[in-house]
Write a structure and sequence with these properties.
Elements lengths: L1 H38 L3 H17 L13 E13 L2 E13 L4 E5 L6 H8 L7 E6 L2 E2 L5 H11 E4 L11 H10 L10 H7 L15 H13 L5 E5 L7 H18 L2 E6 L10 E6 L2 E7 L13
Parallel strand pairs: 3-8, 3-9, 6-7, 7-8
Antiparallel strand pairs: 1-2, 1-4, 4-5, 9-10
Helix pairs in contact: 1-2, 5-7, 7-8
Length: 307
């Protein structure tokens, strides 16, 4: 008990230190921009620098010339470590470099403790990183505070987890509409019946969660995430609580989202056989990417070997 309390205390100290370092770095960069602006003679360039600084420090928005439009996600030399004691750090991610194209089905593979979930959390802005850079769409996550990251996720990202987290007193259709209510105004509305149809849930739309199988409940959670019309959908071990039949059904429905709505999918799993259905395969071990390749021989979900 004492060891756990000490670990939690150290982790809180680590979060505090990391936030302090981030603030110091941003403060330093603001001073550099201020100097550049004050030294700029050309009024047009001065105005552009002011706009660039405002976009970066207020919204985390990068200048167009620093964004490769061929990728929605780009990580460079990302490091993540946790403070365990005064002179002891646990290195979770070690120099991660990766690029993800829009509309890809990305499978991130790794055993428990490999760092795959931490990687997902960093890409989605749920966890801060210690070193490197993380760009998602046109935003550099380093410059976003927690409130701005929350807003960014609300506008562009959705999640599917092992647990369904459905509201038991609401029907299938009503649960999915919760996601629709979270959709930002700038995003096009996806008809709930279209979502239900894509997930083979039209006949269950008036049923309650307790009247559904585990596989059907997972599909409702997928539909709720999709109703936000996210640019990127993250799925963390989406079949972890399902048997082979229902697990394949869930994967089939998630892939169907990509096919119909062109949503970028990032699926995190320990099952190496899932690599056979993805476009882009990333294998992580001991906090490092050991494989990063494109799958030239995709198979159908029915042909996945279940282990």
């Amino acid at each position: 008990m004492e060891n756990n309390d000490q670990l939690n205390k150290n982790q809180k100290e680590d979060v505090g230190k990391l936030r302090h370092l981030i603030k110091d770095q941003i403060k330093k960069e603001k001073k550099e921009y201020k100097k550049l602006i004050s030294e700029e003679i050309d009024s047009k360039k001065k105005k552009e620098l002011k706009k660039e600084a405002k976009n970066l420090f207020k919204f985390g928005k990068l200048p167009e010339e620093k964004i490769d439009p061929g990728y929605v996600i780009e990580l460079k030399d990302v490091q993540k470590y946790y403070f365990m004691s005064k002179n002891n750090y646990e290195h979770i991610l070690k120099g991660i470099n990766l690029k993800i194209r829009p509309g890809e089905v990305v499978i991130i593979l790794g055993m428990s403790g490999s760092g795959k979930t931490t990687l997902l959390n960093i890409i989605s802005g749920l966890t801060n990183f210690n070193e490197g850079s993380v760009r998602v769409l046109d935003r550099d996550l380093f410059y976003l505070n927690e409130n701005k990251k929350t807003k960014f996720r609300a506008d562009h990202i959705a999640f599917v987890f092992q647990s369904y987290n459905l509201i038991q007193s609401l029907t299938v259709s009503e649960n999915i509409k919760i996601g629709e209510n979270l959709r930002p105004k700038i995003k096009e509305k996806i008809d709930v019946n279209e979502i239900l149809n894509s997930l083979d849930l039209l006949e269950q739309k008036h049923k309650y969660p307790f009247q559904l199988s585990g596989g059907q409940q997972q599909r409702v959670s997928i539909g709720r995430a999709l109703a936000k019309n996210p640019t990127i959908l993250f799925a963390d071990e989406p079949t972890g609580a399902l048997d082979e039949e229902k697990g394949k059904e869930a994967i089939r429905m998630i892939l169907n989202i990509n096919k119909i709505f062109k949503t970028t999918l990032i699926i995190v799993t320990h099952n190496p056989n899932f690599a056979t259905v993805g476009d882009h395969i990333i294998r992580i071990k001991n906090g490092e990417i050991i494989e990063d390749y494109y799958n030239q021989n995709k198979v159908s979900v029915n042909d996945i070997k279940w282990t």
